[in-house]
């Protein structure tokens, strides 16, 4: 059975990483790219076969071996294939394969191409390893490898200060979530005695209610960091300084999807805590609103898509919170297609124009129709326009929300859905609209960059056809059709947002500059452009902490060190006086006694002649002296 060989999926990618890094100087640029693309093609083919097998048979497979022993606990390592992991393997390998093909041309002139493809291969391999893992410890190891790869690839052009800064920021912010996740894993292990998913799921109910809640919140903290949810979303915009293929891979198939996968994987545990699922739902929908609102006014072509990713990952997390697990994963699949498409299209635009500011773009439609049409399909799917895949997955999320009966969440979801078409068609219109007579660059992209975009547009366009099959295949099902009126209403809301964006940014029938003159609008615009000032607040807090450290350093230098130095000076003076007393007093007495003994001994040596007559004489003198003394004393 093909599932038995699932462990082979990341192996060629790790091998290619080793070859490209160790033979960096010897490999030709083209060779390194072709090796990596061949490895990811193998992973894609095997993942596709496993996905088809899982889809047709509905079977699962679990293989493991003994890893090590920890006290009385035997720790095993293995791989697990089920509908959730087989879907994620397909998503990761498919997007990776297309991104690798795209990168062959995008990175053509880069002298560090072997290093780039080596790190990109490690990135994809680590993500597939994370998906395959059958226990929390093994998952966490690959989880950390994914974080390391993001650090390496975001800062790939390390000679740029913003690249170095962005990579460090991403690494440090996501570590906060990783610490929370590791704490949750170790807490479970101390109570259950196993890292395995199956053992944990079977024994989790034995934990007290408080322990269950704390553990699930800690694991959710890991997802918040990796998937850029509030309040740890600030690393995503800075990560855009990396090469565009890296941005596409991070946002569509690897890093930010890891958190959603973690929540889907622990879904059997979430049902035990309504409090945790409510927290997840509110965090998700508020993040979706934040990302969409912030994307409305950005100017950088990739930053708009970055905030869009924050928003749509928020939709997926929200769906997990309202128990719409299949809806979350279907939206994950759709998002992987249209977001990878939009990032790769942005890369084409940047390559051909040399610009990042969309307000200085326009008229790109005249460069050719293939990329603009494919990009339009991606935008329509992202906006949730029927009958594309994005519309179906959003309606599945709405259905799950309605089943929960929380109309506050329903309203917030519809509001976030309304903002999506506005920001994405502003993005599209400012870049492609022929009404904007901007000069188009002279450079044109080749087929290796265009074909992956067309392939992703095809997937985004046809994904909606598999809506029903997907829902039936997943272990969780949703009941459709019970809220048809609401579905029609939400679709009208999305179409209203789409129409508004076209009127303002494409047809220019509404003067946005006049609207900006309104004070309230200006305030809203500033908050949107500055992403609610959350990142600025963190920066100010950081500067305050830095300033406090400077004050503490000065206090330490002036007062703490001053007191210590004063004691030291006092000690030196005391020791100098003590030395003088020691030299003159103590040493003087000791040396005086020694000198007197030395003097007396020198006199005594003169008496010791060694002659018998001298000794007899001294005896005689002594005897006479004694007799005289006795006579005088009357003895």
From TrEMBL:
<feature type="transmembrane region" description="Helical">
    <location>
        <begin position="77"/>
        <end position="104"/>
    </location>
</feature>
<feature type="transmembrane region" description="Helical">
    <location>
        <begin position="139"/>
        <end position="158"/>
    </location>
</feature>
<feature type="transmembrane region" description="Helical">
    <location>
        <begin position="615"/>
        <end position="634"/>
    </location>
</feature>
<feature type="transmembrane region" description="Helical">
    <location>
        <begin position="332"/>
        <end position="350"/>
    </location>
</feature>
<dbReference type="Pfam" id="PF00662">
    <property type="entry name" value="Proton_antipo_N"/>
</dbReference>
<feature type="transmembrane region" description="Helical">
    <location>
        <begin position="404"/>
        <end position="425"/>
    </location>
</feature>
<dbReference type="GO" id="GO:0042773">
    <property type="term" value="P:ATP synthesis coupled electron transport"/>
</dbReference>
<dbReference type="GO" id="GO:0016020">
    <property type="term" value="C:membrane"/>
</dbReference>
<keyword id="KW-1133">Transmembrane helix</keyword>
<dbReference type="InterPro" id="IPR001516">
    <property type="entry name" value="Proton_antipo_N"/>
</dbReference>
<dbReference type="Pfam" id="PF00361">
    <property type="entry name" value="Proton_antipo_M"/>
</dbReference>
<dbReference type="GO" id="GO:0008137">
    <property type="term" value="F:NADH dehydrogenase (ubiquinone) activity"/>
</dbReference>
<dbReference type="InterPro" id="IPR018393">
    <property type="entry name" value="NADHpl_OxRdtase_5_subgr"/>
</dbReference>
<feature type="transmembrane region" description="Helical">
    <location>
        <begin position="446"/>
        <end position="466"/>
    </location>
</feature>
<feature type="transmembrane region" description="Helical">
    <location>
        <begin position="370"/>
        <end position="392"/>
    </location>
</feature>
<keyword id="KW-0812">Transmembrane</keyword>
<feature type="transmembrane region" description="Helical">
    <location>
        <begin position="279"/>
        <end position="297"/>
    </location>
</feature>
<feature type="transmembrane region" description="Helical">
    <location>
        <begin position="304"/>
        <end position="326"/>
    </location>
</feature>
<keyword id="KW-0472">Membrane</keyword>
<feature type="transmembrane region" description="Helical">
    <location>
        <begin position="35"/>
        <end position="57"/>
    </location>
</feature>
<dbReference type="InterPro" id="IPR001750">
    <property type="entry name" value="ND/Mrp_TM"/>
</dbReference>
<dbReference type="GO" id="GO:0015990">
    <property type="term" value="P:electron transport coupled proton transport"/>
</dbReference>
<feature type="transmembrane region" description="Helical">
    <location>
        <begin position="179"/>
        <end position="197"/>
    </location>
</feature>
<feature type="domain" description="NADH-Ubiquinone oxidoreductase (complex I) chain 5 N-terminal">
    <location>
        <begin position="67"/>
        <end position="117"/>
    </location>
</feature>
<feature type="transmembrane region" description="Helical">
    <location>
        <begin position="6"/>
        <end position="23"/>
    </location>
</feature>
<feature type="transmembrane region" description="Helical">
    <location>
        <begin position="116"/>
        <end position="133"/>
    </location>
</feature>
<dbReference type="GO" id="GO:0003954">
    <property type="term" value="F:NADH dehydrogenase activity"/>
</dbReference>
<dbReference type="InterPro" id="IPR003945">
    <property type="entry name" value="NU5C-like"/>
</dbReference>
<protein>
    <submittedName>
        <fullName>NADH dehydrogenase subunit L</fullName>
    </submittedName>
</protein>
<feature type="domain" description="NADH:quinone oxidoreductase/Mrp antiporter transmembrane">
    <location>
        <begin position="133"/>
        <end position="420"/>
    </location>
</feature>
<feature type="transmembrane region" description="Helical">
    <location>
        <begin position="486"/>
        <end position="507"/>
    </location>
</feature>
């Amino acid at each position: 059975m093909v599932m038995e060989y699932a462990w082979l999926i990341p192996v060629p990618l790790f091998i290619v990483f080793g070859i490209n890094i160790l033979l960096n100087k010897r490999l030709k640029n083209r060779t390194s790219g072709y090796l990596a693309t061949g490895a990811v093609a193998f992973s894609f083919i095997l993942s596709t076969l496993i996905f088809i097998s899982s889809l047709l048979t509905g079977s699962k497979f679990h293989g493991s071996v003994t890893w090590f022993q920890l006290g009385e606990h035997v720790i095993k390592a293995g791989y697990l294939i089920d509908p959730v992991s087989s879907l994620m393997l397909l998503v990761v390998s498919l997007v990776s394969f297309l991104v690798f093909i795209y990168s062959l041309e995008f990175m053509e002139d880069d002298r560090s191409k072997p290093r780039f493809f080596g790190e990109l291969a490690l990135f994809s391999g680590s993500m597939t390893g994370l998906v395959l893992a059958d226990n929390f410890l093994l998952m966490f190891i690959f989880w950390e490898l994914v974080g390391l790869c993001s650090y390496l690839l975001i800062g790939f052009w390390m000679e740029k200060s913003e690249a170095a800064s962005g990579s460090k920021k991403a690494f440090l912010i996501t570590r906060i979530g990783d610490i929370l996740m590791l704490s949750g894993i170790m807490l479970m292990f101390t109570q259950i005695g196993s890292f395995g998913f199956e053992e944990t799921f079977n024994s989790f109910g034995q934990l007290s209610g408080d322990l269950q809640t704390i553990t699930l919140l800690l694991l959710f903290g890991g997802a918040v960091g990796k998937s850029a949810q509030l309040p740890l979303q600030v690393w995503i915009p800075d990560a855009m300084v990396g090469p565009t293929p890296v941005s596409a891979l991070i946002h569509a198939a690897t890093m930010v999807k890891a958190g959603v996968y973690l929540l889907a994987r622990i879904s059997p545990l979430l049902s035990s805590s309504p409090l945790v699922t409510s927290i997840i739902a509110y965090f998700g929908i508020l993040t979706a609103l934040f990302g969409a609102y912030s994307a409305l006014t950005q100017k950088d072509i990739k930053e708009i898509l970055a905030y869009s990713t924050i928003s749509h990952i928020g939709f997926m997390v929200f769906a997990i919170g309202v128990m719409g697990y299949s809806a979350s994963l279907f939206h994950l699949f759709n998002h992987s297609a249209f977001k990878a498409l939009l990032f790769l299209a942005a890369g084409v635009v940047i390559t051909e124009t040399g610009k990042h500011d969309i307000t200085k773009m326009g008229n790109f439609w005249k460069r050719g129709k293939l990329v603009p049409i494919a990009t339009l399909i991606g935008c329509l799917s992202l906006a949730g326009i029927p009958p594309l895949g994005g519309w179906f997955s959003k309606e599945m999320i709405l259905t799950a929300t309605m089943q929960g009966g929380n109309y506050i969440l329903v309203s917030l979801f519809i509001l976030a859905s309304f903002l999506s078409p506005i920001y994405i068609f502003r993005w599209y219109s400012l870049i492609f609209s022929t009404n904007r007579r901007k000069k188009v660059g002279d450079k044109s992209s080749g087929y290796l960059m265009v074909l992956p975009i067309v392939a992703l547009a095809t997937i985004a366009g046809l994904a909606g056809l598999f809506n029903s099959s997907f829902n039936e295949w997943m272990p969780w099902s949703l009941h459709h059709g019970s809220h048809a009126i609401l579905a029609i209403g939400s679709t009208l809301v999305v179409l209203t947002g789409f129409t508004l964006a076209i009127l303002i940014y494409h047809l220019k029938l509404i003067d946005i500059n006049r609207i900006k003159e309104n004070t309230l609008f200006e305030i809203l615009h500033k908050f949107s452009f500055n992403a609610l000032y959350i990142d600025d607040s963190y920066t100010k807090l950081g500067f305050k902490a830095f300033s406090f450290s400077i004050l503490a350093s000065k206090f330490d230098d002036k007062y703490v060190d001053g007191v210590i130095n004063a004691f030291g000076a006092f000690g030196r003076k005391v020791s100098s006086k003590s030395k003088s007393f020691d030299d003159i007093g103590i040493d003087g007495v000791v040396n005086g006694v020694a000198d007197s003994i030395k003097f007396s001994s020198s006199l005594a040596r003169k008496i010791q002649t060694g002659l018998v007559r001298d000794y007899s004489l001294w005896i005689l003198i002594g005897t006479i002296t004694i007799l005289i003394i006795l006579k005088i004393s009357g003895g």
